[in-house]
Amino acid sequence: IDGSLPSFTCAETEKNLLEAAGVIRDTSETVAFPTETVYGLGGSSLNDESVKNIYKAKNRPNDNPLITHVSSLSQLNRIIYSESSNDCKPLSHIPEIYHPLLAKLWPGPLTILLPIPEDLGKSTLSELTTANQPTFACRIPANPVARALIALSDTPIAAPSANASTRPSPTTAQHVYHDLNGKIPLILDGGKCSVGVESTVVDGLVSPPMLLRPGGFTYEDILRIGGILWNECLVETKVSVKDDEKVKTPGMKYRHYSPKAKVLLLIPETNLPSVSSQRIEKLKELINIEITNENAKKVAFLSSFYLDKTLINHNCIHEPLGKTGKEVQANLFALLRKVDEEDNVDLIIVEGTEASEEGLAIMNRLRKAASNNVIIF
Ligand code: TXA
Ligand code: MG
């Protein structure tokens, strides 16, 4: 793995996909594969041993449930809901509240919570995928490699992000190799993920519905597309909770997105058209104090909308995250990893954004990465 996407012939691609599909279908091993959001670490959702191997390779706490990925609604009906009838309607097992969302957003970075088939008297999914939750999480990814893998294996694939637990999610095959080399047999390299943050997780089975994790589709997308049933959708805003606190989505309990280096997050006050030079001078002072207190020898600065490299009066590695929400999302995890793993800095200073549109998912990830070590400017 040298950083570039290898070029394969059609026959080689087919062979690689079939090999990976065979691992998913016929063994209890795992395969890392690209999705449009981040790389996933996949195993059969139907097999306890496969699911155990996912938790083990990532070192993931086993009370944190997994998303099941399917390649089509007919696969969901046939395999997960054991639907034998050919004239079963595509959405017949999906609560109505999701219909407008799925019509526009699937395949894509949207995960929905669905009734567990066991509760309907059908035993299909491994109980370990749902980790005692009253629902299971499901999505149809848009990435063609992901969908081909799921369709060829003819198996619903349980897949968390393919990072070692607590680290930033992987957006290239190289990131997966860095974290999981020696722990998994196969990585499918499909190049860089286009979205760069994980899927949006919504629960339409509670009233009012809830956005449990902001992600690839924005909250504003959900309200606009979901129609009247989603008007009152609440947003889970906590980024951390106590170990024993009962939460709707267990992923929130755990340290996540953390580089080795300390992260300092700079948060703009809302709706800034620009930042006054006075405020920038104050910010510079506070940053200098932090660099001195941390005794940081090597510093990185990831900038986005308002700030530039003149902010840091210190020898530092500067990486622009991008000038739109989508660009920042696409580069965020890759640049956190680059300065942490390749440049080995001790302090990463990141310019945050306003928490709306793509900014909601970006700030959710950054607040976790920074463990609330923040300066508001
Ligand atoms: O984009 C993505 O969603 C990626 C790709 C690989 O599809 N997957 C991903 O999985 O991010 P993971 O395991 O890293 O995050 C899944 C999140 C966790 O926060 C978990 O707690 C939540 O979804 N989750 C899964 N099943 C749930 C359920 N039944 N109820 C509540 N939350 C659930
Ligand atoms: Mg994850």
From TrEMBL:
GO MF entry, a single one: ATP binding
Main location: cytoplasm
Gene3D superfamilies in the cross-refs: DHBP synthase, Threonylcarbamoyl-AMP synthase, C-terminal domain
Positions that bind L-threonine: H69, R139, A159, S199
Sorted UniProt keywords: ATP-binding, Cytoplasm, Nucleotide-binding, Nucleotidyltransferase, Transferase, tRNA processing
Role according to the record: Required for the formation of a threonylcarbamoyl group on adenosine at position 37 (t(6)A37) in tRNAs that read codons beginning with adenine. Likely catalyzes the conversion of L-threonine, HCO(3)(-)/CO(2) and ATP to give threonylcarbamoyl-AMP (TC-AMP) as the acyladenylate intermediate, with the release of diphosphate. Required for normal translation, by ensuring translation fidelity at the level of codon recognition, appropriate translation initiation selection and maintenance of reading frame. Also involved in telomere replication.
Protein name as annotated: Threonylcarbamoyl-AMP synthase
One Pfam family, short name: Sua5_yciO_yrdC
Any one cellular-component term (Gene Ontology): cytoplasm
Keyword Cell inner membrane among record annotations: no
Biological-process GO terms, alphabetical: regulation of translational fidelity; tRNA threonylcarbamoyladenosine modification
Subcellular compartments: Cytoplasm
Reactions performed catalytically: L-threonine + hydrogencarbonate + ATP = L-threonylcarbamoyladenylate + diphosphate + H2O
Homology family: Belongs to the SUA5 family.
